[in-house]
Amino acid sequence: MSELRAATLGYAVLAATAIAYLVVYTTSLGHLPTPFDYLSLLNTSLPLVFVAIGQSLVVLTGGIDLSVGGMVGLGVAIVAAGSTSGAAVTAGWMLAAVGAGAACGAVNGLIVAKGRIAPILTTLATLSVYSGLALKVLPVPGGEISPAVRSVLTDPDVPTGLIWLGVAVAGWLVLRRTRFGMRVYAVGSDETAARAVGVPTVWVKVGVYALSGVCSGLAAVFYVSTTTSGDPNAGDSFILTSIAAVVVGGIAFAGGRGSALGAVAGAFALTLVIDVLFFAGIDPLYQSLFQGLFLVVAVLLGSLVRWRRA
Amino acid sequence: MTTLDTAKRVLAGPHRRVLYAFAAAATILVAGAVIHPGFGSWTSLRTMLVLASFIGFVGAGQMLVVLVGGIDLSMPWVLNGAAIVLTTSSLGQSGRLPLAVALALGVGAAVGLANGLGVAWLGVPAVVMTLGMNGVLQGLSLGLSKGLTCGSCASYAPEPLRRLVVGRLFGVPSELLLWAGVALFVTVLLTLTTFGRRVYAVGNNPRAAFLAGVGVRGVTVVLYMLSGVFAALAGITLVAYGGQPSLGLGDPYLFESIAAVVVGGVSILGGRGHYVGVVAGSVTLVAIVTLLQAERVPEYGRNVIYGLVILAILFTYGRERADD
Fold first, then answer.
1. The domain that contains A70 carries what CATH number?
2. For labeling, which of A139, A238, B138, B202 is most exposed (least CB within 10 Å)?
3. Tell me, what's the pLDDT at B79?
4. What total number of domains does chain A contain?
5. In this predicted model, what pLDDT tens digit does every residue of B127-152 receive, in sequence order?
6. Residue A87 to residue B323: CA distance in whole angstroms
7. Which residues in B lie closer than 8 A to residue A132 (C-beta atoms)?
8. Separation of CA B103 from chain center
């Protein structure tokens, strides 16, 4: 299946949401969105984009990662607690946050693959552990990030975020074509068959959970960069939104089908929906009602299209 | 036939995990009584059991859908929504209580019906359907109550309902009798009725169950409805306990419900498990948290230890069979 076909649902949903955004923005403000609007949309979407790519990898093997909330929280805590001094030190702590994510993710993978405990249960338990560690590192919200770091990662005036988005997408496209990428799909399609032909399923799983941790660490870095401070509970909202992005992106929960690019589109669509509701003048209290409906309708449309094709 | 043989037979049988669940609860309770004086007293046990009953109610609903390989992520806001419906429709008046309870349970049943129809008829994955409905309920609860600032939102639960927790019947808090009733209902439903047989059949192999003439879709819809009703019941009893609903009241209960189900020895893959195990699981979870609080463990330590204990329990009896 081509990359485009695999992510069709995600692109279609994103296109529809983008049109809705342009319409409500223009009718409510009387002019088209400015470059500043696009840029702030891009920067606020980036953390979810990263978590969604990690979640995609895990879901492609037929698993699920609920601990992303704890890993993002831990990463945010590490970056925010360590970044009180200069840019070089901050960069070091950012690497530490990504490393912590990789370690946490590898632990998830080992428990799932070696311990044979269902992914949803493993990551539910480790979510509690990692959230606890985040609270230990940063007991109360705080911290500050140096402007130098901000100008490299998510400059509010220059689209540096676009570079990082490009790196993330390119990273996926390369990974998809490596032997590891092939094995991810093989494990997700039929684990027994994959094992029979010699795919080291245990290490593939450890790999995807570790990569999910790396993505959560990167998301934490970009989260602190856009919000300029840290909250140890910042990761909580990413659990459900990353799953929603994966679903809207058209990745099958059974594993083996879909593309992380769909989830990237899904992540942007989910962020756009909030702005659409805002410019449409809908009471923010009703926000989650429309997000919930959006999720269910997107999936229903996806399955309708699949029926027609079948 | 010695007792050892009997013990071996039970341990090898389908009830093994239920026994493990009780062993886990007993271990934590005994450890608590040894570490912390007063932990094992009747007063402390009674408080823990009342707290465990709320997890027991959401656990009952979660277990029913897990038995057919599903999951209900809409519990937090069904619980919260039902709690808000109860106080805003009863306005603290005893005369309006029956109607208010019926309305609150009705909300749960309606959401469950929507979940069930989406999962069984439209083929939406359970995670997506129930996650979406959780959002819908959250939006409706916040929007209609104007963020819990509406005029009637300040009302308290009517007095008769509050006696559910404070009141005693034969020296036992009425709340615990209600939990015993729920336990009896779920156990009888699952083990002594045709419906129960069908639930396990669908959970073990939906295709085989369908070919054997089981109305798989109907069974699924009923289970999701029951799950919604149990989440609403938890909301009602939590209002009885606290007097007033708050926003986010249901948030902890999503993970608690799933944890209680698996610590109670129910297979997350469906088809295996009993409610008595979930009862033990609920008590275990509350006992862990109570013990950590009694020992004045800071919040981060409580989270870490809580997660590690659940992992340890999963390693003991929550592992999947090796397939190679």
1. 1.10.3470
2. A139
3. 94
4. 1
5. 889 989 999 999 998 888 877 777 77
6. 50
7. 299-307
8. 20
